[in-house]
Amino acid sequence: MSWKTVTVLVILVAGLGGFFYYDTYWLEPVREKKESVKGRLWDVEPKDVEVLIIKRKGETVRIRRTDTGWELLEPVKTRADRGAVDGIVSTLVTARVDREVAATPGKLDEFGLVPPETEVTLEVKGRAPLALLVGAKSPTGAWLFAKESGKPAVVALSEIVARDLAKPVTELRDRTVLAFDRKGVGQVDIQLLGQLSGETITVESPEAGKWRVTKPRVLPADPDVMADFLEKLDGAKAKDFVEDAPRSLAPYGLDRPATVTLWIGKDKERASRSLLFGREDKEKKGVYVMRSGEPGVLLVGEELWTAVPKSVGVLRDKVVLAYQYDKVSRVELAGPRGALTLERDGIGWKLTAPEALKADTGAVNGILWRIRDLRASGFLAEEATAIARFVPKPEVTVKLWEEGAKEPKVLFLASSRETRGGQPAAVAAVEGRGPVVLVDGKALDDLARGPDDLRDKSLLPAFDMGDVKRARLVSGGAPLVVERKGESDWQVVEPKRGGTKERRVADLLVSLKALRWKSIASAKGEDAARFGLDKPELDIALHKGDGSEIAGVLVGKSEGPLTYLKLRASPTVYAVDSSLIGDLRKAPAEIPG
Predict the structure, then answer these.
(1) Which end is more exposed in the chain, N or C (fewer Cβ atoms within 10 Å of the end residue's Cβ)?
(2) Over pLDDT 90: what percentage of the chain?
(3) Coil, strand, or helix at residue 432?
(4) HEC secondary structure over 348-413
(5) Nearest-CA neighbor of 145 among 187, 200, 97, 177?
(6) pLDDT at 140
């Protein structure tokens, strides 16, 4: 192939590629845009509309676009609801002409256009204003008659245009009570002197998610209380626009308001936004408010006023003992049921004193979570020196060691004569620091645990259900043996071969894993007949594929709510809640099938 031929081919390929690029990235968008505006009343885009004017009987609505949305200029100067105004603008600029009703109408009043029902003007960036006269609806109500200003023809538009233009001003106003960025709030001032004989409170956020009271005194603040308050304030919407320029604020309790001021941003960009709270209106289930710098009175839901922290007692952090659960490596607990020591054992726990035993991880976690969730319901004293006065003899002492810490965090609890909400309270304090507080009285019982409460009470040793390949059940002297075939298929192999209700085999294994003893009836297993274990009601053995026994349990007699059981490999007799034995007793009859 000659160089001339190659050159020609390269030029052709480049030309085709250039045309494809031009067609795809230039001509196609142009065609799509032309198609999208085909049949529209106006060839404009919503983003280009800068001012919307709606003149209707006895009212003019004027709205101007701003950097952050829309501003209502008439009939009242205030923020406009961005979504509502965007919807009207979109409806107008995308309205399509259904048909031309009359090219040169003789009488415009026949179409409700003299005078028009509504007159709309759009001020559009870079071009002359667009005006539309909107008249009556068609007899069917599906269309309305309209005419562009300066053009003779009457056209039919969708009645959606009339519906959007008829929206009352209250639907076009922004109902957001206070617009702010929650993440940017670094300080909140709450001035309650106008309504309550309280105090001015300042709360600051040194870092995201953390708060502290700095006035009238320095205290850690409850992050959940602050988060709830800011969330409700951020989401608050006006229930009603009560009065735009009231002659007097006294009827609304806003002549001496409570004030919440948010400080947003840092350094030179730091700015404040304030909301003034007036009186509550019980009948309307709301409270009257004003935005600082705006004359209008709004009614907001009573839940917003409820969420305002009205005292240091509400705001201050009520966590009794803060610690990192996943960092706790050792626990010592002393109470009316004795003293014990727990140490973390992998992902679980073990008792190391008064004797070495496997611990019930769920029960230990329950203790730790109860301490983590312990909250003060009242404050008795701020200083650590008051601990000896309020807790002279602790009834429960808990010591928590966190990884890397040389000393434990120590929690003291004692009973109290005081009540909170009609319920008994207890006194709690952390060694070496205040405050001394009141807590739920149940905490004493919940944390007063002894070794028997926290030891592992699983009856059978831990096993994986997938390892069980064979199960033997003997009830009333009649054996039933089932074997696993594959992953989940089970077959009866004794007394005769047959199928099984596989779900019932799974229920049997789950029930065995869930067995927990309530008490030890006989540590050495003396007098088996006393517990019905000389002739057990049920004998269950689980085996691996190689025939070795995973676990075996004998079920004896029941006495009231308890049933006696023992492991085949141990003499100890245990008392178990009878409700845990139901599926085991039914298994021999229900598994075959």
Answers:
(1) N
(2) 75
(3) coil
(4) EEEEEECCCEEECHHHHHHHHHHHHCCECCEEEECCHHHHHHHCCCCCEEEEEEECCCCCCEEEEE
(5) 97
(6) 82
Candidates 395, 394, 391, 417; CA nearest to 337 is: 395
Pull the structure tokens for residue 393.
Answer: 């003899």
d(CA 365, CA 353): 18
Tell me the average pLDDT across 498-515: 93
Model pTM? Answer: 0.70
Among candidates 482, 489, 492, 515, which has minimal Cα distance to 503? 489
CA angle (309 as vertex; 304, 315 as ends), nearest 5: 145
Summarised one tens digit per residue, pLDDT across range 457-483 is: 999 988 999 999 999 999 989 999 999
At residue 352's C-alpha, the angle toward residues 349 and 353, to 5°, is: 130
User: CA-to-CA distance for 411 and 430, rounded, in angstroms?
Assistant: 5
Question: What b/e sequence results for 410-445 when a residue is b if at least 16 CB atoms lie within 10 Å of its CB, and e otherwise?
Answer: bbbbbebeeebeeeebbbbbbbeebbbbbbbbebbe
Q: Which two tokens stand for residue 560?
A: 């009231």
| Whether 178 contacts 236, CB under 8 Å | yes
User: 152: helix, coil or strand?
Assistant: coil
Give 303-353 pLDDT, tens digit per residue.
999 999 999 989 999 999 999 999 999 999 999 999 999 999 999 999 999
